[in-house]
Design goal:
Blueprint lengths: L2 H23 L10 H23 L20 H15 L6 H19 L1 H4 L25 H20 L7 H17 L11 H20 L10
Helix pairs in contact: 1-2, 1-4, 2-3, 4-6, 4-7, 6-7, 7-8
Length: about 230
Amino acid sequence: MEFTLLWAALLAVGALWMMLRLERRLGLLPDDRSDWFDTLLGAAVSGLVAGRIAAMLLTGTNPLTHPADIILIRGGVDTGFASIGALVFLVWATRRSLPAALDLVSPAVLAGLAGWHGGCVFRGTCLGTRSEFPWAFAEPGSALTRHPTEIYSAFLFVAAAFGALFLLRRITRPGVVAAGALATAGTIRLVTEPIRPSLGSGPIWWYTTGILAGIVLTAAAFLRQTPNRRPET
């Protein structure tokens, strides 16, 4: 892994850790479980591996015959399969307390995504399509000003993280916060996709699927005939 990606990953992990600490200080995380950070870190690593293997397969590289290429993250990571891999691990790790556990980690997950997008300052990948806005800027040696697209995304994910934290303190219906976080993450990626530099249309269907899944799961959580309280974790 190149160092620029490492710094971005560390920023994401740091943001995730700080949000977990804030949740604990607010009394939102139960004291009988101290491995929340380890669980989320495991989900992140699982998603990274899943996304990297998917990217290799989609480009015609067999991970069984080229296992060393799996660690070459800069070679590409499929974000859709990375998200699925991370979510599958998270669901498996918290299977005994679903969906309450997913609600509890939602603010931290969104904060981690904010950190990852903000890590563009290390990777030199903050800029998107051309823009004439006053806050647009150009790469060194270029006169073409462009949207700081990844900075937009970082701020939106920060707002989403604190929004999820706000809802977590007020909505006790299990699953609502997690489903809303899923829909919000998909929306943020979808609305910023048009100003991202891309040769194609981008993985729009991934984001659309996430939004629809979040909406359906939110409705299901409200319609579920269970007491309006969060179960013990």
